[in-house]
């Protein structure tokens, strides 16, 4: 199987981003100006280089070759040399795939040629490169003479995919791959000037042999501006060479220099002198998608379009009234879904109007159901903004309904109050300066505890239910005339006279010991002597070594409070045993007193 070998020789460069455009153009011009006989090619990554820039490249390059960008997915080493911008320098490995070319002399876009080193195409070696100024045993990958072949290509792709590179970029990767096979060529093919250190005598001695100068590092001639090339140091002389080529091709008196080129060159882009501003070549974000992008750098701050920048507190005292659009819709929307049409009846609802509205105003009916005076009178409607709701309040008022308290409907409260009133058969006079309004209570009739006062009692609009007028000291059960009427006793509460605290205490102690003994085992009435019972308490041995020990923390609150059996028959022995057992765990009284201080 014959592999078709490339026949053409090319100088090739690389453009990963638009901002290296001036470098790529100057390189191509410098080679052409130097009279090369070779074609010029440039590899571009179409996803990161704009079409305008590609058009500009086509004006000087014979071939603009789109290639896949090869990104280092393990870029940690790039930070070792502070060049995270070189994340896609692995793209250089695509050079080995371009087998349509016999030989490629690759040159970085930050290189300017003093002369065209066409002799590099005649090297017999598959790979040649010049020493790196930072570590001359290594080669610099800014200038390389290579023979494309798929063997090296796949090997390099494999390294790139695994991120194998000591500097995270192509120079580390290629030095690892061609470590033992590279052909070292003269530094004059890839002179790397430094603004900080230059071996000046060597420069003076060898400058005439320079073929190409390479501006390594993140500062490039086009990013530093023209003034960087002023002075007479070796560095400024070499930077001056770059500017000389640039000026020859892109400093036109007639203003024919493309704005796109000027845009990337410091000091060259002066939009005030141009009528039409060239569109920035960076891909522009037309509409910002907040879910995918950070905000555009030129976007306005939040609330930048507010009518005022400063807002104070409102002095408007009128309460805020929401417009109708904010009120909840009265009519429900037409059902759309089947479950809306076949809805089950709700089991719990909130009442929008009184659940059990009283019948329309009719004196006889009103009196029979509610004997309290206000019920006979038309009720003043409550203010419209009552929590009960404007509409229902008005509707009730229109019907002549009275306002009731829900507790008044509770039959047990009613029953209790009726019991009192039957005891107090005599109707009391009011004595509060209020017109007596309560008619004599009929036995069994409903008795309201709270009520809304009439307009005469309270001319202002009633809002809150007020307590119904009652005789003085009604709650305490005493009256002005000294009549010692009592409220009926609650269930289970003994009469005060029957309450003997000492007797109760004894009873309690008895219950307590009974319950304790009950817990410990069932006892037949015959066995009911404390001796037998005492034997039935399971004895627990004291832990070994703790015999005779006394609890250091337990302090009996008071010997008097200890439960003491009160059974008359066997109380002596019971109390003996219980007090003995209590004494064994309780410290003596002296300790107790000590502890109290
Ligand atoms: O944003 C970028 C960065 C790089 N490049 C291209 O990639 C080359 C390498 O980048 P460069 O800035 O020139 O790197 P150097 O400062 O020269 O750094 C050294 O280290 C790099 C990474 O190992 C090698 O690629 C260089 O050859 C070597 O000189 C450039 O010349 C361009 O061709 C771009 O187009 N856009
Ligand atoms: Mn470079």
From TrEMBL:
Renumbered residue ranges of the record's region Disordered: 278-306, 350-498, 519-597
InterPro entries (UniProt xref): Glyco_trans_8, GNT1/Glycosyltrans_8, Nucleotide-diphossugar_trans
Catalytic reaction(s) noted: L-tyrosyl-[glycogenin] + UDP-alpha-D-glucose = alpha-D-glucosyl-L-tyrosyl-[glycogenin] + UDP + H(+); [1,4-alpha-D-glucosyl](n)-L-tyrosyl-[glycogenin] + UDP-alpha-D-glucose = [1,4-alpha-D-glucosyl](n+1)-L-tyrosyl-[glycogenin] + UDP + H(+)
Cofactor entry: Mn(2+)
Subcellular location: Cytoplasm
SUPFAM superfamilies tied to this protein: Nucleotide-diphospho-sugar transferases (SSF53448)
GO terms for cellular component: cytoplasm
Transmembrane portions of the chain: none
Comp. bias (Polar residues): 366-378
Family: Belongs to the glycosyltransferase 8 family. Glycogenin subfamily.
Function text: Self-glucosylating initiator of glycogen synthesis. It catalyzes the formation of a short alpha (1,4)-glucosyl chain covalently attached via a glucose 1-O-tyrosyl linkage to internal tyrosine residues and these chains act as primers for the elongation reaction catalyzed by glycogen synthase.
PANTHER family linked to this entry: GLYCOGENIN SUBFAMILY MEMBER (PTHR11183)
Name of the molecule in the record: glycogenin glucosyltransferase
Protein's organism: Cladorrhinum samala
